[in-house]
Amino acid sequence: MCSLRKGILKRKNHYTIHRWLGLITGVQLLFWSAGGVIFSTHDIEWVRGNEGRSTPEIPGIAFESVEISPAQAAAAAGLGAVKTLRLHTVLDRQVYAVRADAQTHLVDAKSGAVISPISEAMAKAIAQADRTTEPTIIEVSLVTENPEIEYRNKPLPAWRMVLDDEDNTHIYVDANTAQIIARRNDAWRRFDFFWMLHTMDYSGRDDFNTPWLVGFAALGLFSVLSGWMLWFLRFRSRRRAARKSPQPSAGDPLR
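The chain above was modelled as a monomer; its predicted structure follows.
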């Protein structure tokens, strides 16, 4: 009788632990499941802002327009020891991209003028050329510090263009290289919000090894294992009870 009572109390303790684990991990498991729905229903090209993006053919280099030598371009950039130098086209304009360490300047290949940082008008033209419909730009700002979370860990300064479209698209153009660095829309923002809930990195959002994530993943695993253990104990208990119950005799009408 004493051993039976101890077994019952032990099982009640197991059920109590399992219920508390379910309560603690349940909300986070709900967030992970909701994130799975968002991740699986949002097309990644839509999230990346590639829907509605213009993909013109890359123009060849018009060498007759190049009047500045690479050495002259490097000297005009004034960046010191040059790491790389590339001749390419920006809005049908031949330019040298001169890079030294982490800084890049654009030099006009015809006039030798340094055009970095690029002007607002040039940034707007680059953003509109990126879209097939050339949408209206309703807001322009130069981001030099403390960027929004949607432009985290990206190079500064950058021009931020807010487009007048149904996806509330923002296009970020690097002010030094004239390259589009990021395309952000409402689909990306939803994806990023649930990614934050998934990683449990509520500040940077990209750390996949946060103590919160490790802890809740371990609790979730332990909750599942404890549920399986309780199911096994209950199944074994029922089998024992069935074996100990009296068997009907041959003459029993219920047999």
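The domain at 51-115 is CATH 3.10.450.40 (Nuclear Transport Factor 2; Chain: A,).
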